[in-house]
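Hello forum,

I keep getting stuck at the same step: I have a sequence, I want structure tokens, and every attempt I make locally crashes halfway through. Rather than fight my setup again tonight, could one of you with a working pipeline run this one for me? It's a single chain of 544 residues.
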Amino acid sequence: MSKFDNSFTDELRQRLSIVDVVSRRVPLNKKGQNYWGCCPFHNEKTPSFSVSEEKGFYHCFGCSEHGDIISFVMKSENVDFKTAITELADMAGIKVPEIKQKSSEQIEAEQTYVKITEDSAKIYQDLLYSESGKFALDYIKNRGFSDEMIKKYKIGYAPKNNIISSHFVNIKSDKLVATGLVRIGNYGPYDFFRDKLMFPIFNAHNQIVAFSGRSLDGSEPKYINTTDTELFHKRQTIFGFNFARDAIHRQNRTIIVEGQIDAIQMQNHGFPETVAPLGTALTEDHIAIICKANRNITFCFDGDAAGQKAAVRACILVLPFLRDNSDVRFAFVTGGKDPDEVLKTHGESAMREIINKSVPLIDFLWDSANKNYLITTPGGRTQAEKFLKDCTSKIKDKIFQNEIEQDYNNRKFNQWHKWKQKKYTPEIDIPDIDAMTSQILKSVVQTYPELVEKHMDFLTTLNMSFDEDVEKTDLSLADAEKFIASLKLQRYISKLNKEKEDIINDGFKTNKSGEEITELTNQINIKINEAKEKLDMLFDIEDK
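Reply #2:
Ran it on my machine without issues. Output:
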């Protein structure tokens, strides 16, 4: 039998859900973990045709027909292999490459590749428990990793010398280079990973095909990964997926975190269904692979601005994969912590509370629109509506899309277009700005809408509406921005003075010593003086 390069057909199976493919011809209903319908290959009235999204195959218990997405298209449409994969490629939005017979040299090269990576992992494992790996072992154990976890994930240590290039001296350098473990320099082969804590990367067949190395001396980048090779593609690889696959099926959910250590700790502390993208931003390929296993996803990101931005991007990526029975949520770890730190400091119960408080996708998008656009202005509301419309347009199920759009229309009517809008209440009570300042600010906002987006976070804390029609300001763009900046500094100083007053009052109530109160107030005085200096510099028109 001829052997063909199956990387493209594997990619089709990764990107396309068999439920999506089959349901174009067969109405399916979910019962338990599988989908059921009447078999298209023989006449029946009682559904005996089962489709497993997780396993990627169909099976008829009536006529015993069995196969995957490719065989389904071939049999149901009576077409040949090439026609079937061309049709599936159109569905997946990818180009069909020329199918070439795999040579014996290619087969041998792949086998050599896997042997090198598997043997290298064993070398790294042994070195972790050697004298040279003591610092790395101490580090990973201090991160809460047990010997059992280290063994399970085959974690190791790459030393400072060229251990791999010197170990495989009998293997041609081009084959070593092909694995990404070795590079060729001016003085010959050298190891790509040196002085790194090594995390093996497994493919779907549980073979080690690449590595992720973490720096131990605080240098950046914190992680480096094997560059893309014939058997490893970073944008299509999900860290920990080989360990999480069964748990995703059992838990009926996938949790996605940001890093490898977070994923491992989550898997070993009550959340075995956790995975992570591999040293890169989440991609459409990652989402396609995960949705094949399960379309219920909880994204868990840091609660800072970068985490919020990553969450919005993940939300947009997952929208085309939504079904009406999907449950996609967003959880955020706040306080500068990550799941690893939460688990170590507060335990599984605290992490479970964070996951349980996750926000449904429809609410997350709505909150994002309200946070990122100044909805107290007509222009801001227009931008927010365009954002929501662009997002919902990505949903392929039109009925489901219409339902979500109707939900947002109701929210917009009730929350944006009431005669009396509910205003934002700041967490810290700061006196409202005076009427003259308010009028100038409204004029600035309506004259220079570009300043609205730039200073969005500040403007939304002012507890005021910008809907009133006012004359445009005579201030230049630079002076208008100076006005906003000065107002921000003035309110910041007011906030600091309020904090200082509270420290003094609370100090007496809690019997703090005079030294403690003085130290705290001195720290605030330093911040106040720095803010005043910035305020003075803001309107210093002298040439520097």
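Residues 477-509 form the longest helix (33 residues). If your local run keeps crashing, start a new thread with the error log.
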